[in-house]
Amino acid sequence: KRGVLALSSNYALYADMSDRMMAILGRQAPEQEVYSVDECFLGLAGFARRDLAAWGREIRRQVRRWTGLPVGVGIGATRTLAKLANHIAKTAERKPGVYPAHLAQVCALGQLSAAEQQALFEATAVGEVWGVGRRIGQRLAAARARIAAVHLGCFDGAVGHEVAAGHEMHDVLAGRVGAGDPCGAVDHPRVEQIAN
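User: That's the sequence. What structure does it adopt?
Assistant: Structure tokens below.
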């Protein structure tokens, strides 16, 4: 009557599909951390010589072939950067023109040049950083803060203090983007998968 369509959820099916996807992903890397029903991180120790973007595309094809689920793949040096890469991969596919088309579906930040990474960070609102909440995101936006303060996964504190009026925001960004890993430090790239 009012243009609303009500659909029932099938949580048993969703859980089954999640289990199947996680089993496939768990075989792809030596370490897996299931973060939610449709999201996980894979530790990539020993993958330094691999073409991670090609590997990510192969994982995406395999999950799609075996489950029918489309996934986005984001690869970064920390969980935060992996989630940001995943955001870029999904947005490049869903909103053409926001990010370069070749990053659609799979984005491996470490394989991009410093200039390419900087352009991506400049094009991304700071509120897209994992863990930056709505309130702090609004304050940073009001101060015209961008993720451009990030250079190759390291937060530049001087820029942070200049752009983000106050230590509270600097600490949040430095903790999220610099150390980059609210779940703990990592010394090897991480990959994040999310079912679309």
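The radius of gyration is 18 Å.
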